């Protein structure tokens, strides 16, 4: 049997292609372990040509909410070829009622074990969404005469080490670049704008030995300059963190590659910094979200302060670790003055870089529930309106802020200006040691227009 897995993204946007779909690679490795005769191909573009060349027996699609419209188009394309097609991923898992007729069925939740039952069913000629055989498979979303129906929920995998390493060979991973891995699933915190805790339900960890064996494989095969721990909160299990760092150093991997990770500010202390200093850290990202305590408490659900963010930046900067952070503006009751407080926080900080986003409601979050109560979102909508990338306007975005859109965009642009200024200062500072690198970065910050 041949299975085509499609990562439904906007491949013309660089940010969506930087990190290849490890989720699909985990499915491929699980299939290879159980059914080595099954051939799997992973693509994110030229879908029609991939269908014609690979001639799959079935197609699986994965999509986040903002790209769900693209996923539906893929489903319709597969239908034109009379191929069985199903969809999985975070969007359909958190909003199963949005399953369109373009797909024969959906997969919700963790997919490594469900995909085995699905392929076994399809390889035996099954396809009917309402069949009794399909209804016995746990973790499916089915079409019925009375609407969408979920089969019995599949239990989460208890031992993550039982999952084989993802089939990176099926992904487009350039050698010598930056790449990433997951060392856990889930987050112990429940931010109002994030759906991770609802999707994963609870936090589970790959063992330190599993993690370091995966790092070794990545280093040996791809010789990357940087590896990011892409967990929701890599440092949450401190004892495991210490073991991972110890194994990395014992194997000399800390001398072969740089590392990046995300932290929560209230967990950053001298003890954590001492452990992380043993690695060659390229960057640590803090989800600071706001410089206003009222808004920070709203977004993060309490238990964290603006002052803790300031202390975390100071501690990491003192250890010569570059720090970047993410911020969110546009909360429902946030005022212009409170947004400016966040801007002033950034100006006073020692952040190397930062990103700012306008609050967007995604399925599975408290923000989505609020937006649905206000009639701003539904299970049938233009999913592209959830795109967090802001261009020159906000007219087509889902906004919960009471600040007029034009003014909100003006405030957002103040952050963009500060970001460019901060990048310029970093380039000038770093460029003393590497002038050619600095020149290339300068051109990227201030591209010359034709005719100038």
β-strand percent reads 15-25%
Distance between the termini: 57 Å
Under CATH at level 1, the class of the largest domain stands as: Alpha Beta
The name of the CATH superfamily of the largest domain reads: Aldolase class I
Low-confidence stretches: 442-452
3D shape: globular
Separate helix tally: 16
**Rg for CA atoms:** 23 Å
Structure commentary:
With 452 residues, the chain is an alpha/beta fold. It folds into 2 domains: 2-150, Rossmann fold, CATH 3.40.50.10350; 172-417, Alpha-Beta Barrel (TIM Barrel). 38% of the residues lie in helices and 16% in strands. The chain contains 16 helices and 15 strands. The protein has helices spanning 22-34, 47-54, 68-80, 90-94, 114-123, 132-135, 196-200, 208-222, 238-250, 270-276, 293-300, 306-318, 336-348, 366-373, 405-431, 435-445; strands at 2-7, 39-43, 58-62, 85-88, 105-107, 140-144, 147-150, 178-181, 184-185, 204-205, 226-229, 258-263, 281-289, 323-329, 353-358. α8 (208-222) crosses α9 and α13 runs parallel beside α15 (405-431). The longest helix has 27 residues, at 405-431. Mean pLDDT is 92; it is low at 442-452.
